[in-house]
Structure formats: structure tokens, C-alpha cells
């Protein structure tokens, strides 16, 4: 095989390759053996037609494109890998010329990884907040815990704010029932603001079994067909219940935790919330450091790299939706768009991440970051412990090459973060 020329224009390379006759013939023969099973010629059983007969009928080079596909790994090795071209994805075949003596010359076009001019990535200043937990946050968690162990009981009296009213209701516009205005055995927490303003207040005072017409005017910003309209809801109160929330004292602390006092429980809630907040801040700081390093670098990003990152992000999001019982198409429709709209929404994030990826790769190269066998072994063991699987099984699922790349990237990120200077966030400007 002879690489006749390589021309680079920005992030694109064009490679002209002359392929040896013997190599091309091996590919063509493999293609013929695969395709002949589908071909039937008069006088021959299906799959038994001689290659020469097929070529005589369909053209001497009928198997050449498929043949090229068969030998493509060898072509790629010689034309791309050995030429130190870092191709993005699979090169495209843009031309194939077959001479009279059957010498094949092909032209391949491929995007290549861009040249990266690093800016500052060590000692950069990046905003970092301080982890804090307020008394209100601690109280909110105590309230949540109290609600989890609260009990419910039915009551026989007039409805009050704070009660849960089980009601039947139907709405009428000038005496005509309207769509979406009917419900049966609906539990409504009075005072929750779940219904149209003025509705819940008029349930107060009703007794079980009472029926009542409630006059309501919908807000101007409500659904178009009902916005600003005065309507009547016919309501029946089926039952009332109250939620008994336990007092937050030492006994409560003993019931809901391993602590003996409420002060100990509060201290534990605060410590865990502070730890969680610190992890979130550290993660945000790490992301901001990498983004800043990427912003400081000069890169002419090829669109193919952005599209590949976009594919990855869409695939991850589709998986998350699937875990929640949605398809990408259904979710997009629910959000008032389509998959193409969602893809465009992901694009800015993909552009930023794709640039960060190539900048991190350049930092790995410049800093000479390596991964030892000990690093790989430790990481495989950590993954096996995390997923409760055998180490050898993990190795079949995650290749050493893939894991090495991941570890190098993590080391590059750590290098940037460890050298960064955290600064206090700027106060928001008040208008």
C-alpha cells in the first residue's frame, strides 16, 4: 500500500492511497464469498454462481466497494494510524479510481483532532462558595421527618383550615359543565393553595355530607378557555381527616433516630447537610476549574467532535428517561417540542464539554500524565467492590484502554484543581 499524499486544511485531512493488487484482491474475494449466498444466476443453484459469471453480468468491479470494506482496517492502519493522523470517527471514502490494470486508488477525507494552544491552567482563580447550613434547613429536615411518622385520623366536625377534605366536585360555566372541572373522592388539603384562589376557603365550615355551590372567578393568567371567567363549582364533602404531627422533642428524636436528644439529632442533620453541601461545592469548583482552563485555551473545534459529544449526552439522557419510564420522543412531546428541539437545547453543553475534553487531552500530553499497572489494579478492585462483582467480570466489561483514558483524565482534572486558587464569589449586583 502506498500513501501518495496527505493534505491538511484546518481540522480536515485528505489522504490519497494506492492499494496493492494482492490486498485488494483478498478483499474482493471475501466480499464475493459473502454476497454470492444471495445471488442466483440461470443454470446455477442459489449461492453457487462463479465470481467471473457475476462480474461478467454486473460489471468487473461489482465487488470492489464491499471488498474495500473488508480490508478497511488494514487501510486505516496504514493511511491514518501510521501517518500520525488523529482521526475523529471513521474517515469517508470520497473517491475510488480503478485503473485499466486494476490498481485501486482511493481518496479518504477525515476530521482530525484540532491543534490546541493551551492558556493558563495552573494557578487560575476560580470562585468557590463556602459550605453553610442554616437553621431553616435543619428545621425543614426535622419537619420532613415528623411528617413521615405523622398519623392520620378521621374527624366528625365542621371543616377547618389544615384539614384534609375528601370531596366530589364539578364546575359549571353558565350552567354547562366544562372539561377538567370534575373530580370524585379527591383529597384536598385546605390551605395548601392547590385549587383556584377562593375555593379552599369556602370549604371551611362545611360538615360531612354537606353539598354547596361555590362561586369562583378564574385568574386572568389561567387556561385560555377559562381565564377571568366566573364559574360555579358544586361540591360535596365526603369526609374529613386531620394529620397528627408529633412534637419535636427528645422522645421524637429517639423514635426517628439513634439519638437520645433533639439537640443530638439536630447536630447530626447539620453535619450531614454540611457534608453534602461541601461535596456539591467541590464538584462545582472542579467543573468551573476545567471550564476556565478550557476557556483560556485556543481551539478550532471540528463540528464532528461536537456532534459526537452531543450523541453521548443525548444517549445518557435517553437512558435516564428510560429509567423513569419515558421515551425521548414522549418526553420531548410533553415538553412541547420534538427530539430535534431537545438536541439543539443540549448543543451549548456539548460544545463546552467537547472543548474541555480536547484541552484535557492536551494537558495529559504536555504534563506526561501516565497510569501505572498498580493504578489500574486498584481501580478495577474499587469498581468490583462498588458494583459487588468479581474483578475479572469487571475487566470483561471495561477495557484496560478505556479505564486508562479515564484515569488519565481524572489525574489531569486533579492537577488543574489542586493548583487552582479559590476566591470568594462576587456579590450579586442589586438593581
What does this 3D model show about the protein?
The protein is an alpha+beta fold. It folds into 4 domains: 2-112, 2-Layer Sandwich (Alpha-Beta Plaits), CATH 3.30.70; 116-149 and 248-298 and 369-431, no CATH class; 151-244, Chitinase A, domain 3; 301-351, no CATH class. The protein has helices at residues 21-35, 51-58, 64-70, 72-81, 135-148, 250-256, 262-296, 303-323, 328-334, 339-367, 373-387, 391-397, 400-419, and strands at residues 2-9, 12-19, 87-98, 104-112, 116-117, 125-127, 151-155, 164-173, 176-189, 211-217, 230-244, 298-299, 421-423. The strands form 4 sheets. Strands 7, 8, 9, 10 and 11 form a 5-stranded antiparallel β-sheet that branches. It has a 4-stranded antiparallel β-sheet with strand order 1-2-4-3. It has a two-stranded antiparallel ribbon with strand order 5-12. A hairpin with a 5-residue loop joins β3 (87-98) and β4 (104-112). α1 packs across α3, α5 packs across α7 (262-296) and α10 (339-367) packs across α13 (400-419). The longest helix has 35 residues, at 262-296. The model has no long low-confidence stretch (mean pLDDT 92).
Amino acid at each position: 500500500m502506498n500513501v501518495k499524499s496527505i493534505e491538511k486544511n484546518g481540522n480536515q485531512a485528505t489522504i490519497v492511497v494506492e492499494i496493492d493488487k494482492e490486498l485488494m484482491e483478498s478483499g474482493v474475494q471475501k466480499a464475493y464469498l459473502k454476497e454470492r449466498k444471495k445471488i442466483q444466476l440461470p443454470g446455477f443453484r442459489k449461492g453457487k454462481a462463479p465470481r467471473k459469471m457475476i462480474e461478467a453480468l454486473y460489471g468487473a468491479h461489482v465487488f470492489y466497494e464491499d471488498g474495500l470494506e473488508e480490508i478497511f482496517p488494514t487501510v486505516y492502519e496504514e493511511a491514518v494510524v501510521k501517518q500520525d493522523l488523529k482521526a475523529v470517527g471513521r474517515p469517508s471514502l470520497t473517491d475510488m479510481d480503478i485503473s485499466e490494470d486494476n490498481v485501486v486508488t482511493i481518496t479518504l477525507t477525515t476530521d482530525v483532532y484540532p491543534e490546541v494552544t493551551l492558556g493558563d491552567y495552573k494557578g487560575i482563580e476560580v470562585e468557590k462558595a463556602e459550605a453553610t447550613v442554616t437553621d431553616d434547613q435543619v428545621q425543614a429536615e426535622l419537619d420532613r421527618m415528623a411528617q413521615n411518622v405523622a398519623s392520620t385520623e378521621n374527624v366528625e366536625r365542621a371543616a377547618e383550615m389544615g384539614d384534609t377534605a375528601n370531596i366530589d366536585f364539578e364546575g359549571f360555566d353558565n350552567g354547562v359543565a366544562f372539561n377538567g372541572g370534575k373530580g370524585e373522592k379527591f383529597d384536598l388539603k385546605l390551605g395548601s393553595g392547590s385549587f383556584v384562589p377562593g375555593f379552599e376557603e369556602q370549604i371551611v365550615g362545611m360538615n360531612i355530607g354537606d353539598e354547596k355551590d361555590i362561586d369562583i372567578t378564574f385568574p386572568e393568567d389561567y387556561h385560555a378557555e377559562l381565564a377571568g371567567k366566573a364559574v360555579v363549582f358544586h361540591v360535596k364533602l365526603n369526609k374529613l381527616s386531620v394529620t397528627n404531627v408529633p412534637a419535636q422533642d427528645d422522645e421524637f428524636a429517639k423514635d426517628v433516630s439513634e439519638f437520645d436528644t433533639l439537640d443530638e439529632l439536630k447536630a447530626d442533620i447539620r453535619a450531614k447537610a454540611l457534608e453534602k453541601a461541601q461535596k456539591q461545592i467541590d464538584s462545582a469548583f472542579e467543573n468551573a476549574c476545567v471550564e476556565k482552563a478550557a476557556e483560556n485555551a485556543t481551539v478550532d473545534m471540528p463540528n464532528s467532535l461536537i456532534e459526537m459529544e452531543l450523541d453521548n449526552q443525548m444517549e445518557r439522557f435517553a437512558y435516564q428517561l428510560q429509567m423513569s419510564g419515558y421515551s425521548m420522543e414522549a418526553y420531548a412531546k410533553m415538553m412541547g417540542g420534538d427530539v430535534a428541539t431537545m438536541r439543539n437545547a443540549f448543543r451549548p453543553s456539548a460544545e463546552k464539554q467537547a472543548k474541555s475534553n480536547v484541552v484535557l487531552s492536551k494537558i495529559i500530553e504536555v504534563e506526561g500524565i501516565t497510569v501505572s499497572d498498580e493504578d489500574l489494579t486498584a481501580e478495577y478492585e474499587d469498581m468490583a467492590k462498588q458494583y459487588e462483582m468479581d474483578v475479572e467480570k469487571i475487566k470483561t466489561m471495561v477495557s484496560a484502554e478505556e479505564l486508562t483514558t479515564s484515569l488519565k483524565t481524572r489525574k489531569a482534572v486533579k492537577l488543574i484543581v489542586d493548583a487552582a486558587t479559590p476566591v470568594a464569589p462576587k456579590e450579586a449586583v442589586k438593581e
